[in-house]
Amino acid sequence: MQNWKFAISSILGHKMRSFLTMIGIIIGVASVVVIMALGDSITRRVNESFTKNQKNMRLVFSPKKSKDGSYTQTADLYAVDLGEESDEATVEPPKVQEAWIKELAEIPGVDGYYVNNSAMETFTYESKKAERVNFIGANLTYIQVQNYKIIAGRSLIPQDYQGFASVVLLDEGLANNLFSSPEEALNKVVMVGDYNYRVIGVYKNPDNSAGSMAQVYGGNAITTNTLLAANFGLDEITDITVRVNNTSLVPELGPKVAKKLTELASPQQGEYQVTDDSAIYQEVQNIYGAMTGVIGAIAGISLFVGGIGVMNIMLVSVTERTREIGLRKALGATRGNILMQFLIESMILTLIGGLIGLILAAGLASLLGSAMSQMLEGTPVTVSLTVSIVSLLFSASIGIVFGILPANKASKLDPIEALRYE
């Protein structure tokens, strides 16, 4: 206990010097903890997004059959369409009927489906304009399966499809952009290209974030896929998605569903395949892991420099307190007592630095979390208890490691020579 008192009194006796010594530790610990907090939040967000997307099995037509007969198309983050001319590029996918997709929904394990088409259009209301809006033509099950929440007005109904009604639903962001509020948007007529659409509702995607494509572009809007096809010369069905609630069934159900659709469509060439995004997910994880490693190494250099600073200041402290060490030894202090005194002082120095760095990291994480709240919506940036404990233990270990040399030097001083020291 006496050693702890000596260590604390020595640090408090040289406050400014002690603080300057801690700076390297403070910066290093704060950097590492913030990186880990951000990494944890981003990883959780990616995992949640990937799990959600895994429930939606997207079916695409491929002019080339899968070599292994898996009916699976692996997505590649770095895949580039070079637009090579070939016989396969001219193969037209068969016209899909929604009745076929309804048959897919009857396969055990499949909970729902939706089909849609889309176009990138400009929305105009009086003097206001929203460019590059993702205009989606959806079937009747689209909004329900996507779990969109209607916050004003109503959703699409069968009569809208039967009568080719010129109606549209806007997402919340687009409604606020063109109008003062979602309620204000109701029953207003917006112009899309050469066509007028009456706003019948405003919806919100509970899983949406500002980092999504809807925010990168001008927003999302939904109408019937039949009307969008008629007005903009599109197929009524260009995207097919089958939903499952148990993601563990995806590897089995995906190929089964794709094979069934291929049988129903009977294309002359090619087949329908289920997309597999696991490769993209793994690539994103690898990229982030590499970035974390590089930034962590830079922060580690800061910790190393901080440790050198601690060792340097402890060597100065040993020199300054040579007579004190000699007096303690003359009064019966053992080499172990002296060694422990300086190790404890070094450890307390780095531990306090680590604590300050941890507090600083928590504040920075909170600020960054607020700044990135839209991109990481629903995923707060926080410093976990485990990271806090590990960072403090690591700080203490730096003090021990870099304090060994000065402590050892102090413990080996000859008491007689130390007492003579001026």
Automatic annotation (TrEMBL):
Q: Name one Pfam family in it.
A: FtsX
> MacB-like periplasmic core domain: which residues?
18-253
Enumerate the spans annotated as ABC3 transporter permease C-terminal domain: 297-415
**Where in the cell is the protein located?**
Cell membrane
How is the protein disposed in the membrane? Multi-pass membrane protein
List keywords of the entry alphabetically.
Answer: Cell membrane, Membrane, Transmembrane, Transmembrane helix
Residues that span the membrane, as ranges: 20-39, 287-317, 338-365, 385-405
Q: What is its main location?
A: membrane
Q: Which family would the database say this protein is a member of?
A: Belongs to the ABC-4 integral membrane protein family.
Protein name stated in the entry: ABC transporter permease
> Organism source for this protein?
Streptococcus panodentis
